[in-house]
Design a protein that fits this description.
Number of helices of chain B: 7
Shape of chain B: globular
Strand content of chain B: under 5%
Strand content of chain A: 25-35%
Number of helices of chain A: 9
Radius of gyration of chain B: 12 Å
Largest interface: A-B, 19 and 23 residues
Structural class of chain A: alpha/beta
Number of strands of chain B: 0
Number of strands of chain A: 9
Largest sheet of chain B: none
Number of domains of chain A: 1
CATH class of chain A: Alpha Beta
Oligomer: heterodimer
Order of helices and strands of chain A: EHHEEEHEHEHEHHHHEE
Shape of chain A: globular
Helix content of chain A: 25-40%
CATH topology of chain A: Protocatechuate 4,5-dioxygenase, Chain B
Largest sheet of chain A: 9 strands, mixed
Order of helices and strands of chain B: HHHHHHH
Helix content of chain B: over 70%
CATH architecture of chain A: 3-Layer(aba) Sandwich
């Protein structure tokens, strides 16, 4: 049977690739070392498939159609923003049989996915894949996007429920895959807002402490208004983390690194989720 | 005549280079904006790139930033921030 053997939470700041030298050396190194740590864990745990939880930034879908949850079951490539991101567009290896199974299991258990047969990823998935997955040979990536970026955003409760269903889907799969869930984005950042560049270290630490104690309910209880006020519109991406926690079940989080990086307009948090 | 149409314009500016070029050309900007269900003041806000007022009216800040970058380039981000933090005109 397939099993989820780990979860990792990490930022997906596009500026890491587009203006990598902007922050001081110590902050750059701390962030890149954290991705390298996650890559090492993926290698050491013999993980062969990652499910990458990201979100659109109006880089993929426009106001004509704003999916609440979307899964890539076929061809995958990225990044969409190859003109400026600093990462060339390329194909990403999907695990199509498992992706199709998660899709169908979701349909059968209450997720009305938007399904992408040709998923063009934006930085939300591409940054984690580039820095935490690509260094490990032959790991496949299944992309799942929830709408934690564009109003009307998905509720945190629903993100958690989707995570629970994804976790059960993987457990029900007859293959022998060793899977990791990557919850990406956050923590505090104000994208395009008047406060852009601000980092709320205190709020970021609060989010990290909830993850450390495996307290998904306290994360879910934070209202969207509070998230935007304390963590900016980019802080809503903790919903991606919440989904990852839902997929893993009872977990405790271990902090890998935290760096407030105003030059990348983000409080950058890296954590590993372990079974409690 | 809604912020939805404004978002449609901004999103299409990030996707279709010909629309970006049209908006940047004073002679073609009106022709482009007349293709959308925009009020006159919304057309004016778009032509003046009043991102503060557009986002105050409900336009996605993320989309405003993306569209600004597509039109003005990333080097003009300080000007975006200046406009976002400018005192409101009454």
């Amino acid at each position: 049977m397939a099993q989820i053997v780990a979860g990792f939470l990490m930022p997906h700041v596009p500026l890491m690739a587009s203006i990598p030298m902007a922050p001081p050396e110590n902050k750059r190194k701390a962030c890149m070392d954290a991705y390298a740590t996650i890559a090492s864990r993926i290698r050491d745990l013999h993980i062969d498939t990652v499910v990458v939880i990201g979100d659109d930034h109006y880089t993929l879908n426009g106001p004509a159609c704003i999916p609440q949850c979307m899964i890539g079951v076929g061809d995958v490539e990225g990044p969409a923003e190859d003109a400026w991101l600093g990462i060339p567009r390329r194909s990403i290896r999907n695990n199509e049989p498992l992706a199709l199974h998660i899709m169908q299991y979701g349909f059968d258990h209450g997720i009305d996915w938007t399904v992408s047969k040709t998923f063009l990823l934006d930085h939300a998935a591409m940054i984690p894949i580039e820095y935490a997955v690509r260094p490990v040979a032959s790991v496949k990536s299944i992309p799942i996007y929830i709408n934690s970026g564009i109003a009307p955003v998905i509720s945190s409760r629903r993100a958690f429920q989707i995570g629970q269903i994804v976790g059960k889907a993987i457990a029900a799969w007859g293959g022998g895959e060793r899977v990791a869930i990557l919850g990406t984005g956050g923590i505090s950042h104000w994208v395009g807002m008047a406060e852009m560049g601000k980092v709320n270290i205190e709020w970021d630490r609060k989010i990290i402490s909830f993850v450390e104690s495996g307290d998904a309910e306290s994360l879910i209880a934070i209202s969207d208004d509070e998230i935007i006020r304390e963590g900016g519109n980019g802080g809503l991406e903790i919903k991606n983390w919440i989904l990852a926690m839902g997929a893993l079940g009872k977990t405790k989080g271990k902090l890998i690194a935290y760096e407030p990086v105003p030059e990348w307009i983000t409080g950058c948090g890296y954590m590993e989720l372990k079974a409690a | 005549m809604s912020i939805n149409a404004v978002e449609k314009v901004l999103w299409e500016l990030t996707k279709f280079p010909e629309k970006k070029l049209a908006l940047m050309d004073e002679a073609k900007a009106d022709e482009l904006l007349n293709q959308y269900a925009l009020a006159e003041d919304e057309k004016d806000l778009l032509k003046r790139w009043d991102v503060r007022e557009l986002t105050d009216r409900g336009c996605s800040q993320m989309l405003a930033l993306l569209a600004w970058g597509a039109i003005h380039g990333d080097l003009e981000m300080p000007e975006y921030m200046r406009r976002m933090n400018a005192p409101r005109s009454t």
